[in-house]
Write a structure and sequence with these properties.
The chain is of the alpha/beta class and about 400 residues long. Helix content is about 40%, strand content about 25%. The strands form 4 sheets. The chain has a 7-stranded mixed sheet, with helices on both faces. Strands 13-12-14-15-16-17 form a 6-stranded parallel sheet, sandwiched between helices. A two-stranded antiparallel ribbon has the order 2-3. α9 (about 255-265) crosses α12 (about 370-385).
Amino acid sequence: MDFRAFGIIPAAGSGLRTSLPLPKQFCLVAGRPLIAYTLKRFDRLPWMEEIYVAISEDWKDYMETLITQCKLTKIRLILGGTTRHRSIRNCIEELNRKFDTESSISGDSGNQVVIVHDAVRPFVDEDTLKQIAVAAKEHGASGAIRPLVSTVIASDENGILDHSLVRSKYRESHTPQAFRHSIIKTAYEKISEYDLDYGTECLHLALEYTGTKAKLLEAPDEVWKVTYRKDFFAAESIATENFSLVGLIMDDSTALTKHLQVALKEKNLQVGTTTAEITKLSEEVNCIILHKVTPTIDSISTSCYQAIDLLQQHSSYGGVITCIVSGVELNKTWHQVQRLAQQITTDIKLLQVYFVIIADQDIHIKEDSARLIKASNMVASLVYSRNQHLNGQVFVV
């Protein structure tokens, strides 16, 4: 890239349209805050220098903790405003101060591109971000667009159809959108109070206040926005299937391994590594399934905390650990495992831990065993659903 790239992510909104108790950007999707996916997309781009995230004061401590836990290195938190444009303007002003103090650029804003993206569009891909940024460098401004899904109509004051638009002539505006710094800086210096309070479209500001006509680029469906409660179901499915790589740590039992692999495949979950040693797991793994045969509680605890350490080191999104315990006496083991589960869920955040006990089970069971199949299906469902309400629970097969 022959220019410097910076991101702005307004995330101070309250998410009223979802009717949820939390702002939607902080709601959990596959066990992780929605905004974590978006921030990681930006943070891992080698050509992105910094990302300015506008947040409300109430969520400052939460975001600082999330940044640390997700190992994000390029995020800068900025106090947001009461509207989207006011939040973006606060970030622009912080960028202005940064550039003004950098002697290397001598006040010349011609070599910086600013990418604006919504916090609740978590699945945007790098190619789209790069294409939008390059187009902005060339044209001054650029934005992602998608075809209209429905016809747009207008009614008169009595609710009677007045006219409809020719759908083929119009497009939906999405983010990411990008601008040469000088253009977006000028636009927000000139912006009216009305646009600050009621406007939402940054490309309009560039056109209205600087005369810059944005280059519009057709974007893939991955730029879609989580807007309503129903959108979380789609986001959950996408996140689970695209961001889950399962590692199997098996003490023994070819039969159980086989059934687990089948059950995980049926859930569209990818198995990355099958091994007997945690240290041999791929760094890309973010879901670990442990199998312990006739273990002591100390052995179970040690393996679980080793798996936790690995996920905390390598998984920026948290992760899931499911421990299968077989060949044990139920009455004694269940209480011990329950205490361990409570301890782990108290100590560890952003990770989910489940336990499945196959009681009094001979591990060398024939391969078509209904109990092994049932246990495998249960484990696959736990890994797929990542249900927060089941975190720390102990299940018995």
